[in-house]
Amino acid sequence: MQISGDTWAIVLATGLGPVFAVALTLWRNRADAIYDRRLYVFRTLMSTRKIAISNDHVNALNLVEVDFYNCEKVVKAYKEYKEHLHVTNQPEDEVWNEKKEKLLAQLLFTMSTVLKFNIPAMEIFKGGYAPKGWAHRDALQIGTHQFVNDLAEGKKLMPIYIHGNNQPPDSPKSS
Fold it and tell me: Which of 32, 41, 89, 157 sits at 20 to 30 Å (Cα–Cα) from 66?
């Protein structure tokens, strides 16, 4: 008895079809997971681009090298941004901040093209929102923390006034 070519084709399709379907599903799941991780990093950086000191922003930045591994354009833009952040001999003035924002916008634009978003670079650079009140609140918190730290180290004194004293207190002396 001889088996025809059509019969062999049916046997192979019946046996290998499920194997190929599982392999394709696994490949697709892996691709989806990579995309989802990259999207998380991109969305987090986009949502915190005006508050770069936030924990979420820093955590997402630290994921760029992992989640965009082998994506040379993104890794290059990330390294340029990171190198600028690590410049220690330059004050964080207006010029430094503007360059930082441009480099971050370039990184985000590069990520957006990899993720197949059509967002103009200028929109990324100019977009985003962070209330000025947040900067004021953060400055107050930093000042409070610094004062408490200085108290603990003996660099500052806590002015104490006794209520009910008939004489007005002397003006406080700062140290």
Answer: 89
